[in-house]
Each structure stands twice: as structure tokens, then as C-alpha cells.
Write a structure and sequence with these properties.
Helix content of chain B: 25-40%
Low-confidence stretches of chain B: 1-43
Shape of chain B: globular
Distance between the termini of chain A: 14 Å
Radius of gyration of chain A: 19 Å
Strand order of the largest sheet of chain B: 7-6-8-9-10-16-17
Structural class of chain B: alpha/beta
CATH topology of the largest domain in chain B: Rossmann fold
Strand content of chain B: 15-25%
CATH architecture of the largest domain in chain B: 3-Layer(aba) Sandwich
Largest sheet of chain B: 7 strands, mixed
Oligomer: heterodimer
Shape of chain A: globular
Number of strands of chain B: 17
Strand content of chain A: under 5%
Order of helices and strands of chain B: HHHHEHEHEHEEHEHEEHEEHEEHHEEEEE
Mean pLDDT of chain A: 93
Radius of gyration of chain B: 22 Å
Distance between the termini of chain B: 29 Å
Mean pLDDT of chain B: 87
CATH superfamily of the largest domain in chain B: Response regulator
Number of strands of chain A: 4
Number of domains of chain A: 1
Strand order of the largest sheet of chain A: 1-4
Number of helices of chain B: 13
Structural class of chain A: mainly alpha
Low-confidence stretches of chain A: none
Chain lengths: 314, 441
Amino acid sequence: MSPSARSFLLHLGVIAGLFVLCFTLSDYHQGNLARIMVLATYAIGYNVLFGYTGLLSLGHAMFFAAGMYGLGLAMQYGGMSPVPAFAVGILTAAVLSVVVGVLALRTIGVAFMIVTLMFAQSVFLIILYFGTWTRGDEGFVIPQAARQVLGMDLTDPLIRYLAALLLFSSALLITARMMQVRFGRVLIAVRENEERTQMLGYDVFRHKFLAVLISGSISGAAGAAYGLLFGYVGATFASVQYSIFPLLWVLLGGAGTTIGPLVGAVFMFYLIDYSSGFTNAYMLIAGLALVLLVLFARAGIMGEVRRRWAPWLP
Amino acid sequence: MERGPNQMLPTGRVEMTQKLITSRRSLLKGAAAGGLLTASPLVSRFASAQSSAPIKIGFQQHSTGIGAAYGRWYGRTTDAATKAINDAGGINGRPVEIIAEDDGTDPKRGAEVVEKFANQHGADVAFGTLFSHVVYGSAPAAGEQKIPYFVVSEGHHVASGKLNRYTLQPGITDVKSQVQAMAPYVSENLGKKVTMIFPDFAFGHDHRDFFTAAIAAQGGEVLEHIAIPPTETSFTKYFPKIPRDTEVLYHVMVGPAVLTFVKELGEFFGPSSPEIFGFIDSLEAVDLGSPGLEFLEGTYFWEGNPRYAQPDQTSFDRNFRAAVGVDDNGASVSDPSDVSTYSHMFGCWETLHVIKAGMEAADYQGPQDRQKLIEAVEAMSDMAESDAHPQGPKVFNGKTHQVFGRQYISRVENGKLTRVHSTSVEDTLYPDEVDYTTMAF
């Protein structure tokens, strides 16, 4: 079987598995998985830039928050229904991605990390500054009655799960396909050796810019979906820790693997959920897990699987 | 996290908790629930109930994150209230079990915790949230899971109508009523020309908006609003913005920078400062004897509940302090440097007693009676000062799901807070902004 056929079956299997789980999991785990799929979508967006293009951003929360506030403000003050508001959310994140891409891509390495961190901090402070509309740190609630799409109630656990699955599947299939075509391969080439890629005649800046745009837009879609599905929009999601989370999920799951973001998000969510039942120092346990992973499985869970057993893993 | 009776507090404070026989999950789960309970001394107390299964109350606790100091004391108060309720026969003859989960003072985790209470722990109600952003983040989950969510936050979120019918705040007053009730005393005793210094985020904006309107209603005015960015660590550069004819400086800084703020304020003004009025939120869990706070001598504070036992202390306050393990200076009886969050934590005690009263009025048997419980609480009105309400008398507004109660103003004298004024409950009232009772469940 060709690698692309295996890849196709893997992604189809993951999506089918998640679909089946919807009907077999308890209410609690079903709710968790819906949330995890949205967060994994955010991590997929992050993975496009970090895992495939090799650009380490410390400010991705700004894209997640841009999507969330784009949707939230459009619904709150624009009176929009969820679908166009969702589009506004993605558009907001895309516009921000263009701005950040144009400016931040003038830097490389540590400077890129710092510039993205500063941009994210600026977005966080802007949200607080315009607290009259954003309600700043408190945020605001999107009423249950407004979260309806085509007669479907997005607050219903089953509908919400399926909506999250649709979002996650779309992001997964788009990025998986992207990595099979020339554009994605150039991104990987940029990650591996930027100078050589440029010498071969590829427009490196254009590819990196498009990677920022795609990454930011997917992250923004996740943010908009989070606000819509869980009914809350707040500045916390623009804070530094929400820029660190996708980095952790991707590192844990396997940077540069298509299903690594999902695996990392699931692993981290349940590590915190279970360990918090034993101790308040659950973040210490999460940190310890990360240290162990860096020591013994530097490529992350799926990266290690690919290295040891399945070199075809996308 | 589910805490064992002696598990929660650090070593050295066991005496406060070892008496607590709160019926924990670890004690009651599975088959042990029936057998052990039957064999325990609690048997006679709870025997008359239709079911001896515990009433499970999910406690959304800020154990970590920015709210950890509050969370620690909210935990102690909750344990003490649970013990008091169980010692008095529980609720409807059933013991109360607290299931604590840390929300990390984070709205995302808060929502997850509420879902966990409803779907994993099988909790009857959720309770205990303080920070407003966590309330906002969690309330949608409470509405969707249809689990009554009793917050202890003092935010205006509930009474503003922005939440849902499942969210109630019956144990602590909200910031709008607190701020409004301060204005008459400030304008009559301290001055009418006010400059406000507040953090530039929602909490500070609430103070800005509510106090500006309230002081104007008293014939006063705010000369200048000075908003401090949340990332600020030094404040000296903001003080020259204070107009020279300021009679009262109103401050409500929070967070770890508050000590620097007070120290720099003292250095700026020296001995000739205007009257200074602040909200104790700035200094909850902070020892007034801390270096740098000497400048606060002679200044005024709003207190939700006087930290220092006053000469006319009620027996209710005395009993409350004894139950929670707080001395006359508002600190832990086992560690005088461990200062409580006395202006807020009574809310946990009172809220649990409201839940008890509501469940008894609704003859609550299980989750199928959650709507009856909410209706029973909505039907409440006067709450007399008592052991169940040691902070003072209150009036609950069933339409807005918000309680109203007495507020206190204290002056720092000899390094301690001395109460100089008590408002009436009526001073804190304002027109309804919502009627939750008209909303469907």
C-alpha cells in the first residue's frame, strides 16, 4: 500500500473512530472530547507553522482570540447569526495573520519568537483596553438562544460534538492534503534548510507568509468555534499561557505529524484532569511528563511512533 | 480533586480541620457508603432521611492561579460550614459531601469543572466560584448541564442579567451595591472631589462606572480617572495626574503589585495626603503590618465583613470565627501570619446555608428536583442575621438572583481596621436589571 493510501486510511480511521466515540462515550468524556477536538484544531493550526515550517511562534493565542472575538463581537454587537459570525471570526484571524506575517517574518529564530510574543501581548492589552466592548478580562457570554445553526442547537452535547468533529476533520484533512502537495513539501524544505530551499529557486518568504496565514486562520477558526460551542468569549484566551498550550500539545503529540496535535491535546487534557484528582501540583506533573518526553522521545508521541515503527506516518 | 478530612490544609493547621467530619467521597463511595455510614456515629443523625446518600456539592475552588489565596480560605470556610451543617443533621436528613475541584482560576478549566461535577461526580449543585471571569466562563456550562450554580463572586454579572436561570449569588453582595453604598459616607465625611485610581480591566471599570455615578448622586464629582495598565509594576509616574484639589483618593488596586502601589503612594504624598479610601480587595490575605503599609494609617477601607473583631462583635461572628479557625485579628488561629480573606469568605458559609434552606424548602431529593431548588431559592427574601448569616442581615432578590446586605467602612488605627460605619441594606439596593424568573429552565 502506498504511503498516501496509508495516510488517507489513517485519517479516515481517526475521523471514523471519533465519530463512533460520540455514541459510546459517557456524557462527561463526550463533552471533554468535543472540547479537545476544538483545541486540537488550534494545535493543528500551530503545527502548520511550527511542525512543518519550523517557525516557533510564542504568540498564537492572538489568532485564537482574534477568531473568538471576531465571532463574539459580531454576534454581540452586530446581531449576526452564528455562520456569518464564524466567517467574521476566521476573517479577523486571517487579517491579523497578514499583518503579523508581513512584519514578524522580517525576523528569524529567537527574534521571531519574541516578535510574535510581543504581538500577542499587544492583542491581549488591546482587548483589555477596549473593555467597554470586549468586557476585558471578564469577557462575556454568548447566550444559549443565539447558538443555533439551521435549526440545530449547538448547546446540545451531540450536536456540539459533531460540530467539533466537523471542524477538526476539516482542519486535519486540509493540512494532511497540504503536506502531500508541492506547497507543503516546500514548507518542510524551509524547515529543514531555508538557505538551500531559497537557492533552489523557491520564494521562501511567500511560503512562510502563506504558512502564517493558514496557521493563523485555522487557529482563528478554532477560537471562533470555541466561543460558539462553549458560549464564552474572554481575554484569558489571548494570554501567554494560551500561546504556550498549543506548543505543548504539538511537542507532546509530535511536531510535524498530522495527528500529533490531537494526541498531544488528549494526553495533556487527561493528564491534568486525572492528576488534579490527586494533587494541586498537577501542572508540575504535566511539566514532568514534558521533561520525560523531551529526554526519551524528543519527536513527541507520534514522532516516536514514526521513527520506530511507521516511517510512512504523515 | 476530592479532599480527605485532613488533607486540605498544610501541616500545622490540622487542628482546624481534624474535627471536620465532612462526608467525603472517599468515605462514602461505593458499597462503603451504606455500610460504613450505618456503622458510624452519624447514623442516628441521618437515619430519618428517605435516603442516606450524601448531598453532593461540587466546590469549584481556586486552588491554584491568581485566586489561590482566596481559594485556600474559601476551602477552609466551606469545610467549616459543611461540618456545621452536618453536625446539625445535614440537609433533609442527609449528610453533605463536598467535592472540590481546582479550576486554576481559569475560565476554560472552570467550565470543564462544572461539566465534571454534573456528569462525572453526579453533584447535586455546583458552588463557590469567586473570580468573575471564571463565573462568566463557567455559567454557560451550568445552564447547559442544568445544574444550579451558586457563585460567591461579588461580581455584578448575575444581577446584570448576563447569565442564566441556573446561576445565583445568594451569599455575597455584588460590587455595584457595595460601591453605591460607599458614596454617601465618602461625600459626607471625607470629601466630594474624588480622584479614582483603578486597574484598567473590567473589575476596575466596574468601580469607575458605579462609583462615578454614585458620588454624582451625592452631589460630588470624580475629578480624574486614573487607569493603571494591568502589566504595570511601578506607579509613581501616575501620581502627578492626581489633581491638586482632590479631597479623596479612591483606590482599588489588586494583585501582587498592591504593596508597591501603597509604598509609592506614601512616598509621593508624605504626611500631607488627601483622605484615602480603598477597597479591602487590595489587601485581602495581606497582613496590614507588612512593611510599606504604614502609610495606610488613618485611611479608610470598605470591608465586606470586618477583619478585626469589633468591640460590639456579635455572637454570630464569634461563632463563625471559631468554626473556621480565625482569630480576632482575622488570621488563622494556628498561624497569625496567615491572614484570611475575611471580607469575602463568609459568602461560602452563607451560600451553603442558603443551599440547605433551599433544599429543605424544596424537599430536595435528587437532581430531578434541581428546578424546584432554584424556585425555592428564588422565593427567598429576608435573611436575618444569625449563625447562618454571620456577616449581617440580607435581602435576596429572587428576580435578579442577587442578595443585598450591609456593608462596612473601617479606618486603619494603630495598624488595625476599626469599623467606623455600617450601611443599611437599603443603601445597597438598586433597580432590577433582569427578571430571571421569567426565563425558561
